[in-house]
Structures are given as structure tokens and as C-alpha cells.
Amino acid sequence: MVQRSKRSMSPGKAREMQAVTKAYLYTVRRWSGEVPISHQVYIALDVLNFALNLALSKLNQEAGTNAPDEHMRLHRIDVDAGE
Hints:
- By secondary structure, the protein is mostly helical.
- The chain has one domain.
- The protein has 2 helices and no strands.
- The termini are far apart.
- The relative contact order is 0.14.
């Protein structure tokens, strides 16, 4: 059995996953706009939104893109560079 930690991800696969993740993120944001802020579902959607943003950040690294996301104005934080 192959250990998962020994697998690698190709940039092409990361870009494919980026497209699907972005589409889902937009859906989650649309849902968030339809639910009252005080509702428990809104809180769950907020957490999901955060997780999707984190996933997109990591997919940007795997895809080799370091540019900010135009639609969400997110930048990859490079901890090793001291930024």
C-alpha cells in the first residue's frame, strides 16, 4: 500500500482543482448572502468559506502561481520569506 505522503500533485491537477474549488467558493458566498447573519447556517458557511480560501491558497502554491487572485483579492503568504 502506497503512503499518501509520498504522492505528489502535478500543476495541471492543481489547476483543475482550483477551477472546481473557485466555483464552489462562489456558490458558498452566494448562499451566505441569502442566509441571515445570526443563523447557525451562516456561521457554518463562514467556516466553509475560510476553508475554501485556505485550499485555494495551497492550490496556488501547487499550481506554481504566486499572483493574487483577481476576484477574491487574496495573496499567498510565504512564511519562509518572512512576509
